[in-house]
């Protein structure tokens, strides 16, 4: 009797394992040459798009809060600082104008803010919020809330950079862990940190203020490129974009950010990834 029970338990265990393997989506690995992996929904990363400007006296406090949140949440949080709007006009002694057409367009696309500092989190309209723009006091709680979410997309971002020609190539592979319907777009942002330039602060103008995560350019239109391929289990959607970095940019402080987001009434980010050229 004991042997029969043992055999029965073994058969039930094997049947359970077979059932699990039968149902789980098995698709090719993104980063290995052979073998297969079971792709499951992954932790959703959080994109915070801060709107700022060199003439915004309160924006350094907002930028400091962004750095504090990055320290807390680590790789789960990805930051972009967009210089746009009436606070972004450079001073006569500014080294550069950090406004770009894509940044100005994003300000309108993401519900123009009434005041700064302000930020958009995963381009999501949260409960009890009238628009996407959020005041500084709400950032921490909503970012923590988003950390509990999973994403059905896996993004694998690879960068190549030629120092001679300063050509940057961003290659992204997108794999769904489940079948998705709807319309999606894909955006590529390029940011630079460690930029020393003028900034208005409560103590007056500071000429060597350090600007971080500055949106320098986009390899796609401001509202992204259409993704025509279907997001079905077992498929891989691959995107590649190139640009030449200006000589004035410190490529060791340049980061590329890719995001897949909805289009239409919802602009919510489904997944986001970043990689630094210094990595």
Quote the distance from N terminus to C terminus: 61 Å
The rough form would be described as: globular
Helix/strand order? HEEEEHEHEEHEEEEEEEEEEE
Unreliable stretches (pLDDT < 50, length at least 5) are 1-35
Mean pLDDT: 89
Please give the share of residues in helix: 10-25%
> In the CATH hierarchy, what is the architecture at level 2?
Sandwich
- CATH level 3 topology: Immunoglobulin-like
Helix/sheet category: alpha+beta
Account of the protein in words:
The chain is of the alpha+beta class. It has one domain: Sandwich (Immunoglobulin-like). Helices cover 20% and strands 38% of the residues. The chain has four helices and 18 strands. Strands 11, 14, 15, 17 and 18 form a five-stranded antiparallel β-sheet that branches. The chain has a four-stranded mixed β-sheet with strand order 5-4-6-7, with helices on both faces. A hairpin with a 7-residue loop joins strand 1 and strand 2. The longest helix is centred in the first third of the chain and has 22 residues.
